[in-house]
């Protein structure tokens, strides 16, 4: 590519990073990330999403958390909106990262909104998602919202329903009021 006078852009780098990550070669993907930064090629929200997802799959949650802090949470929110427009539902990991990213930025309303969207599409949160959100809401002085989320999540997650029944039930409980 360079031989022919073409410089790699964000799409090229992201495609290569994604390929390495999908092939289980995360270290190669991270090297390309460093090269991308060294060449002053700005990553897209999708670039962050690819790396965060790969780090989470490798159970390297601290590093994923770091990428979320380094990344632009607004762009991450936009990428999820794009995913939903293309009928590609975000998964539990994606929602958890968004929820925590918004909490870290002090955006509790957006964190709750992401939690509501998670429920609305039938994506069941796990204890990590729920407990983290509740903890953040308590620290932000929002005990009523924390209690409401705890009630909904633990009631709905322990109903003993099949996954499809639970998904339908979760969609019905996506209406969480937020005091602003």
From TrEMBL:
Entry annotated with the keyword Repeat: yes
Family: Belongs to the PPR family. P subfamily.
Alphabetical UniProt keywords: Repeat
Record carries keyword Mitochondrion: no
Lineage of origin: Eukaryota, Viridiplantae, Streptophyta, Embryophyta, Tracheophyta
Taxonomic source organism: Prunus yedoensis var. nudiflora
PPR repeat positions: 9-43, 91-125
Domain of life: Eukaryota
Gene3D superfamilies for this protein: Tetratricopeptide repeat domain
Identification of the protein by name: Pentatricopeptide repeat-containing protein
């Amino acid at each position: 590519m360079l031989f022919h006078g073409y410089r790699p852009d964000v799409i090229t780098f992201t495609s290569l990073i994604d390929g390495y990550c999908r092939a289980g070669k995360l270290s190669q993907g991270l090297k390309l990330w460093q090269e991308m930064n060294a060449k002053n090629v700005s990553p897209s929200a999708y670039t962050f999403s690819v790396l965060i997802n790969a780090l989470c799959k490798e159970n390297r949650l601290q590093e994923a958390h770091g990428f979320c802090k380094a990344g632009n949470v607004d762009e991450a929110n936009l990428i999820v909106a794009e995913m939903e427009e293309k009928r590609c539902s975000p998964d539990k990991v994606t929602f958890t990262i968004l929820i925590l990213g918004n909490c870290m930025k002090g955006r509790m309303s957006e964190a709750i909104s992401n939690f509501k969207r998670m429920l609305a599409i039938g994506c069941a949160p796990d204890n990590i998602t729920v407990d983290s959100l509740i903890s953040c809401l308590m620290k932000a002085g929002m005990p009523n919202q924390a209690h409401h989320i705890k009630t909904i999540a633990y009631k709905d997650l322990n109903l003993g329903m099949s996954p499809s029944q639970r998904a339908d039930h979760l969609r019905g409980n996506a209406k969480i009021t937020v005091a602003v």
